């Protein structure tokens, strides 16, 4: 039997500061540790040449949080396809658990030893990879983070799936509309250390401070660790512990699917609203059977595509990761923002009217 007392670690979660992902100290220094004045991140040596030729024959390693996670499979296939189009090679390594931070460190070291030209990493922890990533950078490896960032000075650029603020606020807005801006709500997150999850939750909390949400109350944050069974059990525990719960936000594709699975077979179906971040293929049947009204996400294949193209642009010298630099990825031009952040774009809302137009 799942014991709710063992999972209430999220209730007292401290307020997450806006985009302050530096929760853990970075050890070690390298020649790339000197921050540039405009962005505060370690820029690669030299000056960007936007007209430089795109190098071919590069090797780019992808290191997701979890290799058997359907979301990362889709994202990394997008990266693989982009690299093939650019004439470079793709390789994927990574842990089978979404909480194996030490495993991620060892894979960074492996890619560095294999002398890849660049790596695209989805960080499980904001600071745990820093020493290894800085060592990679000092050895000439270009480092891109995607989906979940590390500290700005531990990589060259971060490809963000969407504005963190947009994601956090819109999830609250979606749920509020579904419950009439009234009632108790909960959040079902992934790992407690996940940088992207915590940043989004910080914006959710800030959004809830708006007077229009005065009749809504966040009663708990639970953690399913991006594990389907744990997330299913966490959903069950939330509903048992909070009988008046009106809605759940799950900003994780594994979590929202598991929560929908539980709700769809329970007395809470259609009564407790569920939204968050999910894939259309995972959520289609739950939208069609009335368990979920609407949820959102970006296209993970496009995220992987942009991560790969960013890595190649860095390795080709077309960008260094400095704020204000521009480059073209496919048919779209991107401008690098503060701290080397590159935003994919706004999330897409999926509901019964449009979900069949998407296949991922």
Description:
The chain is α/β, with parallel strands linked by helices and 360 residues long. The chain folds into two domains: 59-162 and 300-345, Response regulator (Rossmann fold), CATH 3.40.50; 164-297, Rossmann fold, CATH 3.40.50.2300. The chain is 33% helix and 18% strand. The chain has nine helices and 14 strands. The chain has helices spanning 70-86, 101-113, 130-138, 164-179, 195-207, 228-241, 253-264, 280-288, 300-315, and strands at 59-63, 89-92, 118-121, 142-146, 157-160, 183-189, 216-223, 245-250, 273-276, 294-297, 326-329, 332-335, 341-343, 348-351. The strands form four sheets. It has a six-stranded parallel beta sheet with strand order 2-1-3-4-5-13, sandwiched between helices. It has a four-stranded parallel beta sheet with strand order 7-6-8-9. β6 (183-189), α5 (195-207) and β7 (216-223) form a beta-alpha-beta unit. The longest helix is centred in the first third of the chain and has 17 residues, at 70-86.
């Amino acid at each position: 039997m799942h014991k709710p007392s063992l999972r209430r670690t999220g209730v007292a979660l401290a307020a997450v500061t806006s985009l302050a992902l530096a929760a853990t100290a970075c050890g070690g220094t390298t020649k790339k540790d000197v921050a540039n004045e405009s962005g505060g991140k370690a820029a690669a040596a030299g000056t960007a040449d936007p007209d430089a030729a795109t190098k071919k024959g590069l090797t780019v390693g992808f290191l997701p949080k979890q290799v058997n996670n359907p979301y990362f499979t889709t994202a990394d296939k997008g990266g693989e396809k982009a690299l093939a189009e650019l004439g470079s090679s793709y390789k994927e390594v990574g842990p089978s658990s979404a909480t194996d931070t030490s495993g991620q460190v060892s894979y960074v070291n492996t890619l560095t030893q294999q002398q890849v030209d660049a790596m695209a990493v989805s960080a499980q922890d904001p600071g745990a990879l820093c020493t290894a990533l800085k060592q990679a950078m000092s050895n000439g490896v270009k480092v891109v983070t995607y989906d979940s960032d590390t500290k700005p000075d531990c990589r060259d650029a971060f490809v963000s799936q969407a504005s963190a603020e947009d994601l956090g606020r819109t999830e609250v807005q979606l749920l509020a509309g579904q419950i009439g801006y009234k009632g108790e709500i909960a959040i079902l997150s992934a790992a407690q250390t996940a940088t992207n999850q915590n940043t989004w939750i910080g914006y959710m909390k800030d959004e809830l401070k708006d007077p229009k949400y005065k009749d809504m109350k966040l009663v708990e944050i639970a953690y399913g660790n991006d594990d389907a069974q744990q997330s299913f059990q966490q959903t069950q525990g939330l509903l048992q512990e909070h009988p008046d719960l009106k809605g759940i936000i799950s900003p994780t594709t594994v979590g929202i699917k598991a929560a929908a699975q539980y709700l769809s077979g329970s007395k809470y179906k259609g009564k407790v609203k569920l939204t968050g971040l999910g894939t259309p293929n995972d959520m289609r049947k739950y939208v069609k059977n009335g368990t979920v009204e609407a949820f959102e996400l970006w296209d993970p294949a496009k995220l992987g595509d942009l991560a790969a193209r960013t890595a190649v642009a860095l390795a080709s010298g077309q960008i260094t990761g400095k704020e204000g630099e521009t480059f073209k990825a496919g048919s779209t031009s991107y401008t690098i923002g503060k701290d080397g952040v590159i935003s994919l774009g706004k999330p897409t809302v999926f509901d019964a009217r449009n979900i069949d137009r998407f296949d991922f």
